[in-house]
Amino acid sequence: MSTQHVDGPDGAHQRPPGVSDTLVHALGALSEALETTERARGHLYSFHQLTGGADFALDRAVALLREAGRHRWAERVERDILGRNVIPGHWTFQIIEAYDATYYQPFKDVEAQARQELVAGKPHLYEAELKEKRRTRGHPDHTARPEAVRSLDE
After folding, report:
1. Average pLDDT, integer, range 86-110
2. Which of 36, 75, 88, 136 has the most CB atoms at less than 10 Å from its CB?
3. What residues are paired with 87 via a beta bridge?
4. Is the pLDDT of residue 89 over 90?
5. CB count in 10 Å sphere of residue 146
6. How far apart are CA 75 and CA 56, in angstroms?
7. How far is residue 96's CA from residue 41's CA, in Å, rounded to a whole number?
8. For the residues of 27-40, what is the DSSP string, one character each?
9. 96 and 48 in contact (C-beta within 8 Å)?
10. How far apart are the first and last CA of the chain?
11. DSSP states along the chain
12. How far apart are alpha carbons 87 and 94 in whole angstroms?
């Protein structure tokens, strides 16, 4: 037995027969748009955590205002800001839930269904082909795949 590195993408990253360059580019653009949506969703979680952290920091501000003898201000911050909705009727977790249900999940579903119907569910075809065009064959840091394939020497 010997270990041989396979030079080329694995089957999961090879376009099915009859799939055009234009379709591969279209699905790559769809995937890129979904990746941007993933980043936007991450920013929503940052917004959620930062807003929640600020709300908890208000506890210290209220306590210090009281300690400073500024009870009216402590009560105002506690009443008007602490625990306040960030938009009418919504805390940040509700914004994330609405985004997920209204936009993110339908987007993910459409992208997955398009790949399933158009290219047998294969992900990242555009990127896999781009990798093949840009890598240096035979260079140890430009291998086509992470794994080695074992084959029998006959």
Report:
1. 98
2. 75
3. 90
4. yes
5. 6
6. 15
7. 8
8. HHHHHHHHHHHHHH
9. yes
10. 9
11. -EEE---S--GGGSPPTT--HHHHHHHHHHHHHHHHHHHHHHHHHHHHHHHHHHHHHHHHHHHHHHHTT-HHHHHHHHHHTTT--SBTTB-HHHHHHHHIIIIIHHHHHHHHHHHHHHHTT---HHHHHHHHHHS-TT-TTS-SSSS-EEE---
12. 10
- Arithmetic mean of pLDDT over the chain: 91
Encoded tokens for 152: 């029998």
pLDDT score, position 6: 65
| Nearest in space to 138 (alpha carbons), one of 2, 8, 1 | 8
Token pair 């396979």 in the structure block, residue: 6
Q: Tell me the one-letter amino acid at 114.
A: A
